[in-house]
Amino acid sequence: MISNQITKQMLDFQKTTFDNFFNAMVLVQEQSEKMTQAYFEQINWLPEESKRLMDQWLSMGKKGRDDFKSAVDENFNNVSDLLASK
Q1: Which of 1, 3, 20, 55 has its CA 20 to 30 A from that of 82?
Q2: Which residues 6+ apart lie within 8 Å of 4 measured at CB?
Q3: How far apart are CA 66 and CA 36, in angstroms?
Q4: φ and ψ at 45, to 5 degrees?
Q5: pLDDT in tens, 49-67
Q6: 72 exposure class (CB count in 10 Å sphere: 0-12, 13-18, 19+)
Q7: How many angstroms separate the Cα of 86 from the Cα of each of 13, 56, 60, 78, 83?
Q8: Predicted local confidence at residue 69, as pLDDT
Q9: Residue 44 DSSP symbol
Q10: Which residues of the chain have pLDDT under 70?
Q11: pTM over 0.90, yes/no
Q12: 59-62 long-range CB contacts below 8 Å, 24 or more apart?
């Protein structure tokens, strides 16, 4: 019983640590995205197609990041459920 509580506390700590790191990473990525978009808006000679490709690339990065977060959260929940069932 005590080992399950300790394991649950460790899991909660790891989830909190991951969430904090992930949120910090998101802030850095969003700031980089804003800087990149501002830079590309100032480039007059860059074709619109290139700008659209950059927007698509940024949105794909966001989707990948969100999918990764969902997968990690789901697995944390699965392990938590497994511990609760014991």
Answers
A1: 20
A2: 83, 86
A3: 20
A4: -85, -5
A5: 988 898 899 999 999 999 9
A6: middle
A7: 20, 45, 40, 13, 5
A8: 97
A9: S
A10: 1, 86
A11: no
A12: 61/29
The residue type at 28: V
- What is the chain's alpha carbon radius of gyration, rounded to the nearest angstrom? 20
Cα–Cα distance, 40 to 49 (Å, whole number):
12
Count CA atoms closer than 13 A to 68's CA, side-chain side: 12
Please name which of 39, 40, 37, 18 lies closest in space to residue 29, comparing C-alpha atoms: 37
- Quick one: pLDDT at residue 35? 93
Backbone angles phi, psi at 17, to 5 degrees: -60, -45
pLDDT at residue 5, rounded to an integer: 86
* Amino acid in the structure at residue 8: K
